[in-house]
Specification:
Elements lengths: L2 H13 L4 H8 L3 H9 L6 H11 L3 H6 L3
Helix pairs in contact: 2-3
């Protein structure tokens, strides 16, 4: 997995002052599933990427490539 994505995902979550558990609950996944995304063990599917972007109020490009 792309470590830049993992870092951006974690940064976006922290910017919104959410815990991993809160994000997981909002997305309807277990906490370990979300934690695995931040740690690069697994990747979210397209549907979850869209939900993450909506939750964090960022575009997909920002999550994947970082803000410019």
């Amino acid at each position: 997995m792309d470590t830049l994505f993992c870092e951006n995902l974690k940064a976006a979550r922290k910017e919104c002052n959410f815990t991993q558990k809160q994000v997981a609950m909002k997305l309807g996944v277990v906490e370990s599933c979300y934690a695995n995304w931040e740690q690069g063990r697994t990747e979210p599917n397209i549907e979850m990427l869209r939900k993450l972007c909506e939750l964090f109020d960022v575009c997909i490009d920002e999550l994947i490539n970082g803000s410019k």
